[in-house]
Amino acid sequence: MNVAEKTHFIEADTLIGKRIQKKDAPEKAAGKTRYIQDMVLPGQLHAKILRSSRVHARIVSIDTSAAKALPGVHVVLTAADVPDQQPIGVARDHLPLKGERVRSLRDEIAAVAADSEEIAEAALKLIRVEYEDLPIISDPQDALKPGAPLIHPEPHGADGKHLHLKPNAPIAFAGKPDNIAMQFDYTHGDLAQAEAESDVVFEDTFKLHYVTHCCMGVSGIIAEFDASGNLLMYSNTQVPFLHKREFAEYLHMDPSRIRIIQPPIGGGFGSKLDIYPFEVICIFLARAAQRPVKMVFSREEEFLASPTRQPVLLTLRSGCKKDGTLTFRQVHTLHDNGAYTSWGATTPFVMMQTFSSLYRVPACDYHTTAVYTNNPYAGSFRGYGNLQATFAIEQHMDMLAEAIQMDPLEFRLKNAQDAGEVTGQGMKFKSCGFKECLTTAAERSDYQAKHRDNIVHRGDAGPVKRGIGIASMLHVGGGAKIYPSDGCGTILKLDDFANVTLITGASEIGQGSETVLSQLVCEELGLPISAVTVVNNDTAITPWDVGVHASRTTFIAGNSAIGAAKKAKAKILAAAAKKHGCDETALDLRGGFVIKADTGEPVVELARLMRNLHFSDKAELVMTTFYYEPPSVHQDKGFKGDVSAAYAWATQVVEVEVDTDTGIVKMTKVTGAHDVGRVLNRLGIEGQIEGGVVMGQGYALTENLIVDNGVTRNPNFRDYKLVTAPEIPEMDISFIESMDGEGPQGAKGVGEAPSICIAAAAANAIYNATGVRIFALPFTPEAVYRALHGKAEKPQLQAWKVTTT
Amino acid sequence: MSLKHDIGFTLNGVKKRVTVDVGMTALDMLRDVVGLTGTKYGCGEGECGACTIQVDGLSMNSCLMFAVDCDGRDLVTIEGLAADPRADALREAFVEHGAVQCGFCTPGMVVQAAHLLATHPDADAETIKRGIEGNLCRCTGYKKIVDAIESACCGGK
Ligand code: FES
Ligand code: FES
């Protein structure tokens, strides 16, 4: 800082709402960022996993002798070699290495650590496994039929028969007498009465397909034990602190002996929220080899053995009165859990919020049954069930509006939530820009006029029809109290040159949290963004945080960072006031100086003040800590409660061109209006929304993981179609700034929001263009062509009211 | 175990001699033998563009190229683009326009974009979109990448 500047008055300025470049972007654009795939530790071995070649089978024998004899092979492990394995996952229902039964093609049977990947792969080919096939369940509806084969009959636990159990060990997973993995039941209001009051009722079944994250960086981990038995992991987990505890349980270790370092990550989107078998297996290998072991997936393996979005079969009944008032919603969903339970099974937490609270609805009755099948298992994925719920709800909103001959926008506005409302589920909407989202997106896209015109032109000559569709969403925007704490810790220190080190529990997964957190700190301390160094990737250094999920980082970690910065500011101003003989309330921080708050006149350069403090008789440093816990509550047993400190809203209008000759749907424009509380980094938030829109476009139109009798048919980018650059729609994004009272500088979370409405709005747009409603995703040319020519089968859910609750 | 071969090529302006397995890809050679990790593995099948490099001035998927076929060629990777002022402007444009999120696709995108600008200095948005069609990005939705390339394109004139 130049002292000559002292003579100038320093104008007030803000970083909030500006276009701030991502701090890590220059390194990434230069190819210098070292991702986990790029890391090489001295003495490192390479690991590979042998997966099942059968969809459902008993393992008769495993012979690893030839693999063990291969030169360059250090360790070969099967379940028999790890008798202390613990069941892992959300329901603790599977062992990392399967010894007795395989339940899906991704199942891990053996693992090898060798001098090179090539040797490890060659060793896998030498392992002989004998199977005895068992009947396959690939349709979730079959899983519930009486007499259906069971997927998890045996316990993973302690009856002495199971070789992975020590004698007298407690039963960790008791086995299942049926194929039901999880059930959720929620209700509010008087359903019978609400139904009786309805003038119109619709009942339809919707089918939501498999898609997967397709992070450009494939999954990977490096594990290493030191001489004292402490475990160091390089991992791309999104929840390092929770996982530290979980790994400790799986490994029978003291959690304090586990350290997780998170190298930069090649995409997350929810995929790194659970612990997967490969991670535990890699640690087993490292323990056995006493060398660092690195395991990185191939792209094919990434498709086969990483989680999917939850596929759902969903029957929705909705009703309304002639005047446009919603009366009730009744929902039954069947979740295809896959062979094991990960976070996908718990998506009803989010889905029921949308059904109960996106619009005001006097009665809501919601039931989910998640069943085991022999399919790939579903995990958490950006939007977490909300894409599926919104797809159903927003189509019914259009259908109800049409039935009572009301404009679809008017119908939505009539039922939309307002600030101050407390929903049947107990969610309290403190800031709520929903109606403004609706009107903004509708106006900017000229929705109402186009919607009317398109209907008129449906019968025009030519194969290409234009359509416009609208859909909205509600999502948690201030964290989600799912764990005992939803908080985040911050440690902040200033050095002798007034540079800040911000040590935060919150991980950067590409979403730009480092930059936003730096901005919030600089706003308090009056420093340029370049003055901040963020440390956020090492559990041995950073304070606790619950992890990156539920669009919570900006809100929770942001408030935590602000808390620490405010404490630092108070300390600095008190010191300056004392030294310069004035009242600290008359001082402020701006442009790297302590200034007079009223005039902006510089009092002392901040760096100089820092040095004076440090090198004085009573030497002192400015270091502060803060832990932020949001004022949300846990849901009760009936899933009621104000689970988030704030809620985010959005409306998206999608325009399409449908070629009725080919079934090709072109998404031409997306107009979005997002209630984000307040824009912090305009560049970052635009990028997050654009990326989310295109991810939603893929979900709606192109992406489809084809799982056929338990076999994934298209584990590659040739046959699994991600949206490419020429296909993206024109995007018009508006921000509604509802200035949330609890949010950092008024902001709310936005990470998941932009993907949520696209498929629902696209469905409504296709209907607007063609008069044909399609109840199943994705809208591939084949599917659309069939639907337009009356050849599509309407999805059916027989489980309606059949499930035992 | 496998057959080895000695090859020589120019890498980012520097002459190199290495010994590689005959079955090795250029991508693996760059990452594992030479130790330049800016070039990424995204699919290994020519479908994602994360491994894009320039070979004799043409952009190639290094995962589809045998290392032995690099013999006698001139290779430029993301690390080598540092020496090219035009590419500097491009990289800055990526940063400035917010075209980088997780960054995993970014090196391949930048190399592809550099080639695009070299061959189509006046490219418009549509040409740019087609030019990066073979490069997948899961984070950004491509818009800011196209904006960045477009700005470098006009700015470079
Ligand atoms: S890694 Fe070469 S194109 Fe994907
Ligand atoms: S920035 Fe993440 S894949 Fe492109």
CATH superfamily of the largest domain in chain A: Aldehyde oxidase/xanthine dehydrogenase, molybdopterin binding domain
Number of separate structural domains of chain A: 3
In the CATH scheme, the class of the largest domain in chain A would be Alpha Beta
Strand arrangement, largest sheet of chain B?
2-1-5-3-4
Describe this structure in words.
- Chain B: Keywords: 2Fe-2S, Iron, Iron-sulfur, Metal-binding, Oxidoreductase.
- The complex is a heterodimer of chains A (805) and B (157).
- With 805 residues, chain A is of the alpha+beta class.
- Chain A has three domains: 3-33 and 487-628, Aldehyde oxidase/xanthine dehydrogenase, molybdopterin binding domain (Aldehyde Oxidoreductase, domain 4, 2-Layer Sandwich), CATH 3.30.365; 35-135 and 145-177 and 220-265 and 272-305, Aldehyde Oxidoreductase, domain 3 (Alpha-Beta Complex), CATH 3.90.1170; 312-419 and 432-480 and 635-802, Aldehyde Oxidoreductase, domain 4.
- Chain A has 20 helices and 28 strands.
- A seven-stranded mixed β-sheet of chain A has the order 3-5-1-12-9-10-11, with helices on both faces. Chain A has a five-stranded mixed β-sheet with strand order 7-15-14-13-8.
- In chain A, helix 10 (386-403) packs parallel to helix 19 (758-770), helix 14 (513-525) packs parallel to helix 15 (553-580) and helix 17 crosses helix 19 (758-770).
- The relative contact order of chain A is 0.13.
- With 157 residues, chain B is of the alpha+beta class.
- Chain B has helices at 26-34, 85-96, 106-119, 125-131, 143-155; strands at 4-11, 14-21, 52-55, 58-61, 74-76.
- Chain B has a five-stranded mixed β-sheet, sandwiched between helices.
- In chain B, helix 2 crosses helix 3 and helix 2 crosses helix 5.
- Chain B is globular, with a radius of gyration of 15 Å.
- The N and C termini of chain B lie far apart (52 Å).
- The interface between A and B is large, with 57 and 54 residues.
